[in-house]
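Quick one from the shared queue. A colleague (R.T.) flagged Aminodeoxychorismate lyase as missing a structural entry in our internal table.

Convert sequence to structure tokens.
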Amino acid sequence: MAWRFALMTDPAASDDDRTDFSTTFTEVDPSAPALTVGELSTQRGDGIFESIGVVDGHAQEVEAHLERLAHSAHLCDLPEPHIAQWREAIARAAARCGDGEAVIKLILSRGVEHGPAPTAWVTAATAGDFTAARTHGIRVVTLDRGYDIGVPARAPWLLLGAKTLSYAVNMAAIREAKRRGADDAVFVSSDGFVLEAPTASLILRRGDTFVTPAPNGGILHGTTQLSLFEHLALQGFATAYETIPATDLVAADAAWLVSSVRLAAPIVAVDGQELPHDAAFTASMNAYLRSPRD
Ligand code: PLP
């Protein structure tokens, strides 16, 4: 039986010197209404979020997620999050997760039109079952993202690289992938470079080197990819950030989509063309990703 937990947070200013934020949290019924109709997160998707994987009550890579939350807030001109307050909120949510896999979401919205603002809340819920994707792999199609690799530098107002609540386009890409008979999509820039998936980072293997698209190409810098690169480097593998032509994807020795909750899903086909898949290696990656990581 899936369960849910929700905590509303009265967001503290980043220079608030309290060390105990317990009075700033209110547990709310996750199935009851909790937001006002003036919420800009619901009206315009104007806010940011994080999804944190939880395994047996341990929230993974909390600091990396908090750093990215602060980075997204900065890109979106949202008030700087008080990291200690969010850390405490995550700890409260994680304490309720129990055994198995769960997901904690942090949401920071611009708030209600004409105030109060911002609005923040945290949810925790049972994670889906991703065993099939992790063990048998996923088929992907490449989809044009419609802009070139230079756009993030030219047009920062597109908020590329921020984890905003505006995921309608990402969800539409997954629906398009399914219409084409695949499980997921890999976005390609209009000038022919692979970027990321709608909800995951892309990692390619070439011999003993693992590469991922450079985050300055308008993609989200994945916490799972960062964590895996550290792990792979400790195993003696080379890792690199590159601008990767789409033609490299089908020529890779292996490829994965990696993210906080699904973890490493090996790509077994790209646009109908089969890709090699080393099930034992993927299993070792996922064993690492399921172990407590900080
Ligand atoms: N890229 C996008 C667009 C995402 O939405 C996500 C996660 O949701 C990722 C990459 C992977 O990020 P992480 O590994 O931190 O979950």
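The domain at 131-290 is CATH 3.20.10.10 (D-amino Acid Aminotransferase; Chain A, domain 2).
The radius of gyration is 19 Å.
Added to the table.
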